[in-house]
Every structure is written in C-alpha cells, then in structure tokens.
# Entry
Amino acid sequence: MRLISLTQGQFTQVDDADYDGLMQWKWFANKCKNTYYAERWGKTITGTRKHISMHRQILGVSEDMDTDHRDGNGLNNQRFNIRSCTTSQNCRNRKTWGNSSYIGVSRHNGKYQAAITVNGIYKYIGIFVDEIEAARARDRVSIEHFGEFAKLNFE
# Structure
C-alpha cells in the first residue's frame, strides 16, 4: 500500500501496483457529503474540463456505472476496497440515519422497529424489545436481499 498526498492535508491509499500510473497526474481532495474523494482534472470528448475520480480511473468503469468504497472511506482506493456497482447497489452501502445507532433500526414507542428498503419498496421486519436484536434481524434480511452489497451493523 502506498499513500498519495492530496490537497487540504488529505492522503489517499492505493495499491503498490497502481501507484506509478497514478502519479502522472496531480490529484486533489474533493469533499462530497461525509467523505473526501481523490480527483484530478480531465477533459471530455468536446474539450470541456471535468473531475475524474481516482477510484473510477483505477476500476476503468464506464459512465453508466457507479462505484462503491466497501468501508465508506472515499480515500481508500485500494482495489480490495473499491468495486463497480449500480446506483441501487451503492445506496445499500450507506451509513446509519434516524434515531438509532444501527442501520435500518428506529426507536418506536419505547421499542425498536427494524425495516429495510428493497427496490424502492419499504419492508417492515418487525418490532423488537432490544435494539441489538432489531439490528441483527435487519442484517439477516439485508444479506438475503443484497448479498455482498449489504451494509451490516455487525460484520
């Protein structure tokens, strides 16, 4: 693993095999929502300037595909951590939200409700007395529906 220095005091991690090829460009840190990404300037076919993300360049993905950082760290561009995916698959790998510290769990009348969204459809899993029990139930359903793209509460 090698580090590449970026702007804003940031560094990106890349595999040794990718390092020399990536060093031919000047990379910068671009903050997007809750993480940074390593990017450089490039040109479109028409000559317009655009950002090119390091992880997309490493994977060589087409414009119609998304990419995903397994650990949620946009600066970890080691090949084991990045993969091509659809937008739907990428959304499955997001962090917690709501009033619980677990993904897909919310507090409901003193108990914990587990739910998941599959293909845009909200699926109720159940109500649980224990927050951890609700999170584990949500993990089981997530694995059933999303396989390797399931974002789990417990790895």
Summary: The mean pLDDT is 90. The two ends are 23 Å apart (CA to CA). The CA atoms of residues 139 and 152 lie 5 Å apart.
